[in-house]
Amino acid sequence: MNKLIPVELLEKYLSGNCSAEETILVKEWYASFEQEPSHIDTLNPAEQQELEANIYNRIIDNIGVVEDEETQVRAIDNRNAGLWYKIAGAAAVLLIAATAGLLYYNNTTKSESIDGSDVQQVIAVTNNSNHIYKSILPDNSVVWLSPHATLKYPKVFDSKSRMVSMSGECFFEVTKNPNRPFIITSHTIITKVWGTSFLVRDNEASRSADVSVVTGKVSVSIKKKSNSNLLSINKDEVMLYPQQKATYLADVQVLKPGSTKNNPELKIWKHANLYFDNKPLKDIVPILNATYNAHIKVSNEKLNNYLLNADFSGLNLPDVLEALSKALNIDYSFINNTIELNQPIN
To answer: DSSP 3-state helix, strand, coil percentages of the chain (rounded to 5)?
Structure first.
């Protein structure tokens, strides 16, 4: 079996953010499959094409809906069916090893527009896992996607603005750039940012949407056909500052101001400094619950005796959970308001 590489490295490569050394690693990994024997080489062209289609459809069924399916299918050359078969198998193993096969990352080669203006290559990310997935954008802004959330952004941001679109629940930490406002379009609202951290919740299934600001300043407006110039501030926008929120009520089509002072769920995004010196997991969990106002529980009593020696300086809870997962080889799931720690599926 070829040596696996991290999913994060593939994501960086797809978004064009790899260093020269990282690009070489990815290309070497890809090229290694050409020399690996496969029984598909013994099939005739018709059988190869049928198998190729079956593999593709099976992956789509298991990991989510791919946008622009026609474009994706056309991109598979029959002459490389054997290589596609090997890479598909390796990618499946890689996804299973890294995220239990539940996270789907899709880099579309389709040219489309996020804001209705310039047409360009768009990258789409869909989180079909029970984890919170961290995505780094071209300007080094960071987005954490909650389960079932989706995010779209251009491979290269425009010189005048940074436009993204989303659905579901996403937490943003936006890199400051006063000359290039960061604009998020979701199902019912538009959020404009110049450098801040905040939570956006908006999807087609809900009758409401909200934006909660942790740091900095944002403006929120109702999404309308008349929102033609997103770079200017209009009279209907609501300005939000730290510990403020705005809720859009679809039934009455209004933005309702509010406060996040007594909103404990935002504490998971707090950057805390935690240090553990060979502490068992049973002692670590209460500290995490108190620090982030979370409800973490261990589903397997055996895990309570796992020892951890780690420095979690400046991390929020999703980053701490990822670090725990890798350091102790454990898995975790967000189930309603509870985070369950359990042993990974081998």
So the answer is: 30, 30, 35
Distant-in-sequence, close-in-space partners of 253: CB < 8 Å, separation ≥ 6: 222
Average pLDDT over residues 185-207: 88
Distance of CA 249 to the CA centre of its chain: 26
Query: What CATH class does 110-262 carry?
Result: mainly beta
Residue 325's alpha-carbon distances to 6, 150, 198, in angstroms, are 14, 23, 25
Domain 266-342, CATH:
3.55.50.30
pTM for this prediction: 0.66
CB 184 within 8 A of CB 162: no
CA 296 to chain centre: 21
> CB–CB of 233/216 below 8 Å?
no
- Looking at the chain, the domain(s) classified CATH 2.60.120.1440 span 110-262
Segment 251-275, tens digit of pLDDT:
888 888 888 887 888 999 999 999 9
Contact 133, 125 (CB under 8 A): yes
| Dihedral sign computed on CA atoms, order 93, 97, 103, 108 | negative
Tokens of 340: 């369950």
Strands 120-126 vs 150-154: parallel, antiparallel or unpaired: antiparallel
Region(s) of the chain under CATH 3.55.50.30: 266-342
Query: 36 phi and psi, to 5 degrees?
Result: -85, 125
Contact assessment for residue 132 and residue 318, using Cβ atoms and an 8 Å cutoff: yes
Whole-angstrom Cα distance, residue 118 to residue 339? 41
Quote the CA–CA distance of 231 and 253 in Å, as a whole number.
23
Q: What residues contact residue 58 under an 8 Å CB cut-off, 6+ apart?
A: none
Question: What pLDDT sits at residue 141?
Answer: 94
